[in-house]
Amino acid sequence: MKRALLALAMALGLPGVGHAETFTLPPFTQAYEPQGVDERGAWMTADEQERLLRSSKFVIRDDGLNHYVRGVFCRTVGKDRCANVRIYVMRMPEFNATMYPNGMMTIWSGLLLRVQSEAELGAVLGHEFGHFEKRHGVFGFKNKRTMSDVMAWIGVAAPQSAGFQYSLLGQVYAFNREQEREADMIGVQYLAASDYPSSAAARVWRRLMAEQDASASARGRKAKHGYAAGYFASHPSELSRATTLEAAAVRYGDEGDEGRAAYAQALKDWLPEFLGDQIKRNDFGGSDFILSQLASDGWSGPLLFARAELYSQRGNPRDYVTAAQFYAQAIEKGYAAPKALRGLGLAQLRTQQTEQGKASLRQYLQQSPDASDASLISSLIGN
Amino acid sequence: MGGMMGGWKRLSAWAACALMMASPGLAQEKTGVKSGFILPPGSARIVLMRPSVIVGAQSTGGMFEPNADWTDEARRNIDRAIQDIQGQLGNSVAAYDSEAEEAGALSGEYRSLFTSVADSVREYQFFPGNRLPTKKRDKGFDWSIGTDVADLPGLSNADYVLFISTEDHYGSTGRKMLQIFAAMGGVSVPTGLHKGYAGLVDVKTGELVWLNADLQMGGDVRTADGAQKRVGQLFEGFPGRTMPLAQNALPGPAQP
Fold first, then answer.
1. In the A/B pair of chains, how many CB contacts fall below 8 A?
2. Among the listed ranges A93-102, A202-211, B131-140, which one has the minimum average pLDDT value?
3. Nearest-CA distance from B105 to chain A in Å?
4. In what order do the strands lie in the sheet with A104-108?
5. Measuring CA to CA, which residue among A131, A119, A91, A130 is closest to residue A107?
6. What is the C-alpha separation between A348 and A320, in angstroms, rounded?
7. Alpha-carbon torsion, ordered A104, A72, A97, A180, to 10 deg
8. Which chain B residues have a beta carbon less than 8 Å from that of A34?
9. What is the pTM of this model?
10. Residue B104: per-residue pLDDT
């Protein structure tokens, strides 16, 4: 019922209806075919990209994870819409997701690490699907072409008109931001129509801002969160997105289970991997923030191990003291991987605990005698 | 951007880039052969990778507008023209098993790698004013995509891999109008891009033994006759060819 009402509201409110374009509105139907030279060209290009991407080494091929992400997507946008979209989960540590004109979507592992519930993931998936549903790719292309055509003519006819050209260029970016705003609204509407609460959408952006603050502050800088986007910004500012989405969620006033526990359970096996990728990004403040968010219900073994790695990677003498404590706590909490003993031993060696360090490393070698660094570690123990 | 561009320098960088996108290489050499490389007729088995073909228009502002119909047409025409010319290459040429190609990401990666290497050859050896010290003509023709190419599934019986790629941006009416008006004001606006690469790689060593790279190719690939001409040009200077395609002859390739 909720979904039917929403469909009606969207049909009445769609800016695309009555637009000068003569296209019929897509693609609730299965097997939508691109129309016109531009859209067909865009699909051809995307098809070629997909041919390469689907066999890329960066695609995570774990059936369980893929099935889970697709399940959240289908529960967010509904079964009829989700059927034709191909989702590729990419092993990339940045916060990002992309949508191609032909219905190919990528979700990056850095995003999976940062959202904390099915509803938050659904908000992003719905946003990306909104780009597809409203065919933003081809309209963005047309807009860019029109503007660059006009700029080329002006460049020839009136080379002194730099100000006007600058304003045309600004419109290209403004158009893109408008598309992002529209996709945000579609995403939050899907959420409101689903069993997930729409209030989750804004939280994604609030948390991202907090991470930027933490990251900047660890570097001795100050993050700036303006409401207005920059002149050449491709997206609206996080602050304005969060504010708009919060207002929308209040308007819809829907409730539901966010699926926090289910999300944590589904990501459990991948969490150490994604955390490892994040820690390699050399962003101490951001990584520590992500860890503390994940540890809101208590520090588990894998989280403690990741935190120990984060400190030993930064590598100040004092960091090894902290790292050694976290390694030890991780082992206490039952984190069984031998690499925790290795980390502990190395940290102890660097913090005047030579005998304890050697003992830890000896234990490490007992547990994994064939480790690739076995001879190096042996030489440190000195026997 | 020098002062010679006058008022143009005030164009935003973006618009300028759009206009310059199709700037052609000047006085480029087009062909390179590894020193001493000969390919006697009937001596080798050559595998042809799936040609990369992309065709579209160039908007007034210089943006590429991919065109699915033209690309389909061009792919069919080029495939047919390659079949026609195979008999004249003096050696057996077989298309890469497409099922093996689907199986791995590797062949796509090698196609991209070949294009990158070919771009470098064009940029740093074929362009006389821009040669790297190690790529002067007296240093020979020494390029490789790595010995691991032999690991591509399905190449166990092959001696050479043949890569072909073409990219065509046909100037739109608007672009040509712009060109005419700009010319009246003494400003040069290039229109169209017709880029083609063909290269032969030794499977055992990964060495690029022959390359033909041209940014101003002839032949409209959207037509059967044009594609014949294009493919003829792509195989100019192909080592071991049994008969030359005199009607399409370009200025002779520079010898190393």
1. 92
2. B131-140
3. 5
4. A86-90, A104-108, A97-99
5. A91
6. 7
7. 90
8. 68
9. 0.80
10. 58
Enter the tokens of residue B42.
Answer: 């009937």
CB contact under 8 A, B71 and A165: no
CATH number of A269-380: 1.25.40.10
Mutate which of B1, B12, B17, B173 to disrupt the A interface (most A C-beta within 10 Å)? B12
How many whole angstroms separate alpha carbon A70 and alpha carbon A91?
16
Average pLDDT over residues B75-87: 88
In the predicted model, is pLDDT for residue A66 greater than 90?
yes
Cβ–Cβ of A156/B61 closer than 8 Å?
no
Residue spans of the domains in chain A: they are 2-252, 269-380
Q: What residues pair up with B33 in beta bridges, in sequence order?
A: B210
pLDDT the model gives residue B240: 72
Which of A42-51, A269-278, B56-65, B245-254 shows the lowest mean pLDDT across its residues? B245-254
Nearest by CB to B65, which of A38, A48, A57?
A38
ipTM: 0.71
pLDDT band at B71 (very low <50, low <70, confident <90, very high): very high
For the cut 80, the answer to whether the pLDDT of residue B242 exceeds it is no
CB contact set of A337 (below 8 Å; sequence gap of 6+): A305
CA distance A175 to A161: 22
Element (H or E) spanning A261, and its range?
Answer: helix A260-267
Q: Within 13 Å, how many C-alpha atoms sit on residue A284's CB side?
A: 13
